[in-house]
Each structure stands twice: as C-alpha cells, then as structure tokens.
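May I ask you for just one protein sequence along with its backbone structure tokens in two labelled lines?

_____
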Amino acid sequence: MYGCVGILYSAPPPADAHTHTKDQEDKKKSVRCYFRKKIDRMTIKTLTKASSEVALASIRDQVSSGVKSNEQDKSLACLPKSVIDAWSSLPSEVRAALVSSEVSGSLHGSGTAAPTLTTSSVSFGSSASSNSTASSEVGAVSSDKIYEKDPHSGSDIVLSPLERAPKNVFEFIKTKETKNTQVVKTASSTVTTTTKVVTSGRGWRNVFTLPISYDVNMVPHGTLLNVSNPQLLEATGVHPEGYDRRFAVLDAEVDKIYGEQIRNYFASRNIDLTTCILNGGEADKRPEAVDKLLDDLCAYKLRRREPFLAIGGGCLLDIAGMGACLYRRGVPFVRVPTTLLSIVDASVGVKNGVDYCCAVTDETYKNRVGSFYAPSSCLLDPAFIATQDARNVSNGFGEILKLALVRSSDLFELLEAHGAALVKSRFASNTTTPEGVSDRIIDVSIQIMLEELGPNLWEHTLDRCVDYGHTFSKLLEMVPGSDIMHGEAVNIDGFFCCVLSYLRGYITMDTVNQVFSCMQSLSLPTNSEYLTSNLAWQSCKDAIEHRHGEQRIPLITEIGESICVSDITQEELDRALEIMKQFSH
C-alpha cells in the first residue's frame, strides 16, 4: 500500500529555449553547475522544514535580491558576483525552468528533467526494510513519524508533526486497501477475479488535551458568608486594584433566606454585587432560564476571565454551568451548593444541562441539552442544609444511598445507624449521632463520586456504577403530575434494581429486605404508581439510546459491589414489578 508524501511540480522548458545565444547557454551551464553543488550540500533537515519549491525559491530570491534570512545564512554561502550577473542576465522564464529542473534532477541524482509529478512511497509494513525505505525519501524521517491503524475503517495512517506545533498538529496520509472477489461459474469452469483497490487521503490532525483542574473546598461549618472569611471573595478571582464589582446567580429560595447576608458580605468590602435571581425547581430547568442568565451576563458585561458565583441547589447549578459554557464560549464560574443533594452530587462533577421540549415530538427530555464544563472551584458549607425541610434532606440521601449500594458497605452501615437521626436534625448535631458522623457521610460520598468521575469526566466509558438509580428514574420524574423529586426517583429506581438483582440470583431476599429497611428509615419512597410495565420497558429503550446501543444498567451483586448488564427483558421487568407489590411501601 502506498501514500503520497511529497509532490514536486517541474515547469517545462520554454518553447523558444533553443534560440538563446551561445553566451547565454554558457552562463546557464555555469549557474547549473553552481546550483547543483549547492543543493548537494543542503541537508535533508532543511528540505523537511520547507517544500523543495520553497527551498529553491529561497536560493533564487537570494540571487535576485541579495536578501537572506537567518535560516538561509546557516546553509547557503554568499554567491560570487559572476554567478549573480550570469543569473540576472537570463530571461525570467528560463530561470524558473532552471530552478525546477535542477531541484528535481538533484533529488533524483540525475541531470535530466524530472517527471511533472513525483511521489514518494511509504510502506506500512512493520519490517525494518520498509521503514528504512520511508526514511530515505524526502521529508520522511521515521523517527518523527507516527504510524497507526484506524480501528474503525482499517486505514493505515502516517502522522508527521508540523515544525511550529509538533505536539499538537500533524499532517497525515490515510491509506486503505480493500479487496473485492467475484466468482463466475460456467458449465466448464469457475473464474475467480480479485480486485485490489487502494484509496489514499491526506489532511491534518489537531490534538489538544484540555487541562481540567478544580478544587472542591470544604469550608469550615457555617463560615462561608462570615465577613471575616475571605474564601468566597477569593474564589471570584484576582482583579486589578479598584475593580469593585462581582456577579452572582442565586436560587430564588436562597435569595429569600441568605440574600441579604450575601450582599452584606460583598458590601463590607466595598464591592457592588449584581445578582440574577432564578427559580431553582426541576420544572424551571429549561433553556429559558439559561437565556435569562445570558441576558444578565451581557448587561453586566462580564469579563472573559472573571468568575461569577452560582449559589443554589442542583438545578440552579446546572443552569449556571450551561450559561458559563455558552457565554463568550466559556467563562469561569464558582459552584456554591446549598442543598444536601447538590453538595454530594451536582457540585463535584462537570456535567451541566437543562430539560428540553422538542417541537417535533412534543415531548420533554430530561437533561437532553447540556455540556461537560468544569467549574473553576466549588465551596461546600454543610450549614446550608439546616434551612432545608425534612423531605429535601431525605431527597439528598437518595443519592448518598445510591453510592453506598454500589461502592461502600461502610457508608451503608453509617446510613443504617444514623441516617434517620440526621434526617430529623437536618444534618445538625444531635444527641444520638456521634460527632463527626455527618461530616464523614458527606466526605465519603464526595470521594466516591470524584473517584468514579475523575478518570471518566467525559464518559468515554459508559459502564458506570454511578448510573445506578438513573435508568428508570428519568421517565419517572418526567411524568406529568408525578411530584417526585430527583433523589426520590433515584431511590425508587434503586429499589426496583435491587429486586432485579434478586431475580437474577445476585443477592438474597435478606439483602433486599435490608436495603428496603434502610430506605424506609431515611423516609425515602420505594415505589410509585407511575412505575408501570410500559414505563420500565421504555426506560430500557431510552437507556440503549443514551448509552450507545446497550442498556448498561447497574445492578448490585452485594452491598457495596455492582456490575452493569445489558440483557434485561420485559418479562424480567414484569416479574420484578409483581415482587415490588409484596412490600409495604
């Protein structure tokens, strides 16, 4: 198989070249001799930095103008005046033909004119002889080239780094060989014809590794909005002296409770805080909310490297991340989660998004439009949880219990022993919970999330244990009038998957009962009238679409361990739904 790695165009000699005088021919021979010696001394390194045409053009320009670059100084000596005079006396078309023919002739080791099109062959074999052949051609230095095979098309690819950006930009040649075999049978014989087709393409590849680094900061309990704590201000970036304004998008409920305290924090430092107030409910997580944020950012005229604050629950943080990704093609933002659910879930990853209503299907799709866009930092103060009601605290435990079931039996034991008391006290200190337990639960949950998300931020791997509880819950949340919060839907999904694990023999009924008891102690729902056979089967179909052709449904094999399966049938779902009815939900 072959690929074109270099092309030279040689202009034909002028038709009237034979009419030149003998004096001109002598001058031409003199220049020809001089240039051949010069070209022989030029190194392959010089020719690989520029095409052959450009290299000779630099010689020609030196002769005609006397101007030399630093690079030319290294490889070319000053030309004698006699040669310059001889060269200048030649007609321009003769000089052009001479340059082309001499370059081609020198590269081929012959004084005769080169063909109009010259190609260099590159073998894609692994033998040493093949590689040495490639490296002997003009511009082909094997130590600089990268050879690979496209796993999808089967094409052989040769990548050559460009000089100005050798780690990022590569010129490539793609070559693919296909064979077509045709068999024709007649009464007397069978004729087999094999046709080999070699296709080749060229182009460039740009490679850039996006650096992602952000700190998830645990703030001393209850101090984030204390005027003596500089963390919130420092998170908004370093600005020139006298830059006395900041921007924050706030959840409407957060603004009611903490708005005055947030504004006083900045006012005490003589900073004017501009705020965008958005509703932070699940029903409000729509593109219109992103538009409102973008309008306010435009009016504020946020600078390109100026972080803005996003203070609220998970829906507000999703909207803010989407807006940050879109505004000026990306500006920094700081997450300040104010709910238990957002502290252990939305705040630590890089996913942002909104629900989308499709005008064609007239259906609303959960998180269908979004981005992978990291915050500049996160500030976590669990003191915000104290202002949540009991249902919202339980809602947050839905995500924590999910992590315990798939990754940590130790976390599960903490939830069994202390979860109910922490729901009642809203994560505050209480007489039945030892000191440090609430912090430990949050710490372990965040660490598990980061361990699972960190190596797979862009979800190139779709078998993800953190998707536990996120197969059937999506449609469950979207049922009109269902009034199911996200963590609640995740928990219903999670218990349904426990029953599926039991039906497959992965866990015993004792384990199912243990999980069920823990869920009830956390005041989490375990079933819904909207979890029907049709919804469950449609959820599996949607999972195949979302997870690229396979269900990839996480199921626990014991508390703290899980696998992903892709062969759940509708009959299994129906059997699991029947078993669900046996529990007192």
Observations:
- The mean pLDDT is 83.
